[in-house]
Each structure stands twice: as C-alpha cells, then as structure tokens.
C-alpha cells in the first residue's frame, strides 16, 4: 500500500501536459510534476517516488529523495521560524515543519537539530519532532557484546554523548571512550559494550580488542611509511598526542606497538619508533 513519507513503486496511469498521474491505491491518483518525470516514462511504467503533501495539503510525488524519511532520525538545519513552528531543510521543495509542541527547546533559524520524522495519521502530513524519547523503542534491546551498530550522535552530556542506536534505541558513549573528535549530528559505526538491566546501552566507537589491535597496528605501519619509516611517538608519548594522531587511547597504542615489535616489524627507542628494514643497518639507538 502506498504511503506518504517513504519511497513507493507506483504505476503511471496517464500523462498530462504538466506531468503524469500515478496509481497510489487508497491515496488515489497522485501527480508527479513534469520536472521529475523520467524521459522514458509512459502509461504502465513503474516509477520510484517519494510521496508528501504540498503547501495545499494535496499529496504529490517526487523522484527526489529527502535527507530523511518517516521513521528515521536526522540532523537538519532550521531555515525559518514562523507562527506555525520551525521549518527545516530536508532536501525537498516544501520545507519540513517542526511544530512548537514538538520542540525540546525553542528552535532558532540557522541552527541544526536532531529530529525524528513522523507522519500524522489523520492528515497524512509529514512533520518532525525534537522530542526523541517518544519515538525510541522502550523494549530491552537484544544485542550481544561486540555487535556492530550504526549510531547518530544526538546530544552532549556530562557523561559523554547520547546516540540513537540502529534508529531505535538510546545508547551512551562515555567521555573516557572518546579518542577522536565527534560532534552532534555525526553518524558512526559503533560497537556494543553492554546492555544494562534497565535497557540502556553502553557503546564504543572502538571495535573489539583484537579487531581494534589489527586496525591500530595497520594505522601505525601506514603512518610510518608515510613519514620515511620513523615517528617520534612511543610508549612514553603524551596520551593526547597519541589520541590526536591515531584516535585511540595510550594503552591501546602501547599494546599495538608491542605487538609490532614482537613481530619484528618495528624498533622502539627513546626517540620513538621505526620500521625495520630488511638488510638495513639500524642507527636508531
């Protein structure tokens, strides 16, 4: 069944000078304006379209994909505020309304906010809400430690960052787990650390220990190759510098260079680390 706010595969039923009409089932025949009609489109053709209501509350089709659809969370800019609410740019001709009663704090033009896109069940109008809690799953999530998930950074807190996990749950990335710059609105791949008894999820941007060690070890080798085989970083270096260069904690870095040393791939000294070169005499003492 065709729905507003999502992509639909619809059939062309007739052509008119200003576009084509599509069969949207219970929603009736919906206009796809000429500027969106594919060149090979004719009656009987299937077209993938996004349905939404125009400024006159008529359902209309477009082949343009918005930045987010109904049921999704997104980080969008406010481009205007009126007596009706805040209007966000979501990539379509008609801007996306955030009613005042759906704003967590009064929204300001020129700023971005994380919102959830929803459909009004009575009017078919599509709107957005910054009150994210009401749209997240209240059930205890079934994740295992180490599971890979997608996250949208939604809020900065004293503990760290709140993030929407897999478009369905709240998760927390703690400050001591952040080893590279992140900000609200970014999307990341993350990993489950634990699911607490209250259903809250602790997540990390770092993979499981072995996978992380492999990634960091390769990053160190790449770094050395890009810097003539040498680096001033070693196990005595400032944690902040290590975090800035490799995006990991000092402990992870030390384990990685230790493994590379044992494998005979690098040398470690007070001056830093160096790639071991076959048949080359080392003067890195």
Automatic annotation (TrEMBL):
Pfam families: S1_2, WHD_CvfB. It comes from the Bacteria. Gene3D superfamilies: Nucleic acid-binding proteins (2.40.50.140), Winged helix-like DNA-binding domain superfamily/Winged helix DNA-binding domain (1.10.10.10). InterPro entries: CvfB_fam (IPR014464), CvfB_S1_st (IPR039566), CvfB_WH (IPR040764), NA-bd_OB-fold (IPR012340), WH-like_DNA-bd_sf (IPR036388). Belongs to the CvfB family. It comes from Motilimonas pumila. Residues 5-63 form the Conserved virulence factor B first S1 domain. Residues 218-275 form the Conserved virulence factor B-like winged helix domain. This is GntR family transcriptional regulator.
